[in-house]
Design a protein that fits this description.
The chain is of the alpha+beta class. The chain is built from 15 helices and 16 strands. It has a domain at about 20-65. The protein has an 8-stranded antiparallel β-sheet. A two-stranded antiparallel ribbon has the order 4-9. It has a two-stranded antiparallel ribbon with strand order 5-6. The longest helix is centred in the first third of the chain and has 16 residues, at about 40-55.
């Protein structure tokens, strides 16, 4: 199904967002303009700013937010059910499980609820607002997957291609065979080259460095792979680190999507960020999505929080000196976790997927490509999270940069079969249920220790949403 997301005054197709950017700059600088303009232009500028803020019957609203809430019943939910959902999310913030949250629920192209609560930054008490910017971390991955699928549609790669066809540095990868506590490591040659399909579903064997004490993940941390200056440096480092297993043997959440971003860059002949901007963000009106935060947008940027036991409250986490600053426009364009985005932007991306590749006249992917992305491609015996040291999550597989629920009963969820989802390291999360043409998007910034007894907000939301369906 295809749905247009309308402004209050009708359908407007805004292909360029320069007006919006200029208004943002005016707001950020408190309209301290050093140029002289006549009174008529001043009134026009103020009118535009007011329109931007309050979304009153303007074409700007089309690219600022998906649409006004139509209410629960118009979107296919009970009024009481959505009221309970909103109250539960507000309570999670009031209990200091998170500092602040934005949430959106849409079905059949209609927004049932789009609300905010709490703070974006506790230090200066900045409120969470609908234009707050977030580190979306691994929610970057589906964007990278869409970019790669666009190039698949152009015939530039195939699922059965060896990864080394597109990254020749990987021709002679080794595989970790054994190791001991004394640091002795035994490596084995590849039995075959990992394929693009395995790169896309995390079964190629690559490590990541986010966890694990094995020599592979330790090497990722020791060499600061994720803090590389650019994608070329990242590829060079990964080429010298062995795989965790022979290709196709295990699911290991990995650096694979950063490698996908490199492949997009190589096949397109563009910088990865330029490709995303030209081919995805501009057509979809995603003006807040990029790999850094501009100076004029810094005031909109939420900080990450965690629970402090001694102070018995949430505190802002300090910036990690071993990671590049989000204010640096030259930071590595990480396809696995580098994007900053807003609720508006990511909601438009999700609605494009709900619509099977199209939104407001902008065709990003064919319906077939979207269906491929949301189809489990792991072998039957491999579930997401499976490995020699931990059991898999039954009923949940992996497609192209999404987890896919292929058996809701085994997965113990109310979500429909084929629901696909992912999340970010600072807590942002989404899911799409194609059986209901429905998506949920939750935006928070939280890492590390949580308040004792904190709610499982993801499960709370799922249960209340499906209870509210009419």
């Amino acid at each position: 199904m295809n749905y247009e997301w309308l402004s209050p005054g009708g359908s407007f197709k805004i292909k360029r967002i320069e007006i919006q950017r200029q208004i943002g700059k005016l707001l950020a600088r408190r309209i301290q303009m050093k140029i002289t303009i006549n009174a008529r232009l001043q009134k026009l500028a103020l009118a535009l700013v007011t329109t931007f803020i309050f979304f009153n019957n303007s074409a700007l609203a089309d690219t600022s937010w998906p649409q006004n809430e139509v209410g629960a019943s118009a979107a296919g939910f009970s009024e009481r059910g959505i009221a309970n959902l909103d109250a539960a999310m507000e309570q999670i913030v009031a209990d200091q499980d998170v500092a602040g949250m934005i949430w959106m629920l849409a079905k059949d192209g209609e927004v049932a609820t789009f609300e905010t609560a709490g703070l974006a930054r506790v230090n200066d008490q900045t409120p969470m607002t609908k234009d707050t910017l977030f580190r979306i971390y691994s929610m970057t991955k589906p964007v990278t997957g869409v970019a790669l699928m666009m190039l698949h549609e152009e015939g530039l790669w195939n699922f059965d291609d060896p990864v080394s066809k597109h990254i020749p540095e990987f021709e002679n990868l080794k595989v970790l065979k054994s190791y001991d506590d004394d640091g002795n490591i035994e490596l084995a040659p590849l039995e075959r080259q990992p394929t693009m399909r395995e790169l896309l579903n995390h079964s190629a064997g690559f490590g990541y460095g986010l966890g694990g004490s094995d020599p592979v993940n330790s090497a990722f941390r020791d060499q600061a792979v994720l803090a590389s200056t650019d994608l070329d440096e990242l590829v060079a480092k990964v080429a010298g680190i062995p795989l965790l297993s022979q290709p196709g043997e295990q699911y290991y959440y990995s650096v694979a999507v950063d490698l996908q971003g490199y492949i997009v860059q190589e096949l397109s002949g563009q910088k990865f960020g330029d490709f995303l901007n030209e081919r995805i963000f501009e057509p979809l009106g995603m003006s807040d999505s990029r790999f850094y935060v501009s100076d004029e947008d810094e005031y909109r940027f939420a900080e990450v929080h965690n629970w402090d036991e001694e102070r018995n409250r949430l505190v802002q986490r300090p910036h990690r000196p071993d990671r590049p600053s989000y204010l640096d426009p030259n930071r590595m364009e990480s396809g696995g976790g580098g994007l900053v985005s807003s609720t508006h932007d990511y909601a438009r991306f999700l609605q494009m997927l709900v619509n099977e590749g199209e939104l407001d006249g902008a065709r990003i992917l064919t319906p077939e490509s979207v269906r491929i992305m949301r189809t489990n491609s792991l072998r039957d015996e491999l579930d997401i999270g499976g490995g020699p040291d931990r059991p898999g999550r039954a009923g949940i597989g992996f497609g192209v940069d999404f987890a896919v629920i292929y058996d809701p009963e085994l997965a113990e969820t109310a979500q429909g079969p084929g629901t696909y989802y992912w999340s970010g390291a600072a807590g942002t999360w989404f899911w799409i249920d194609p059986s209901q043409d429905m998506f949920w998007l939750g935006m928070i910034q939280a890492q590390g220790q949580r308040r004792p007894g904190a709610a499982n907000m993801r499960n709370v939301a799922i249960d209340l949403i499906y209870d509210a369906l009419e």
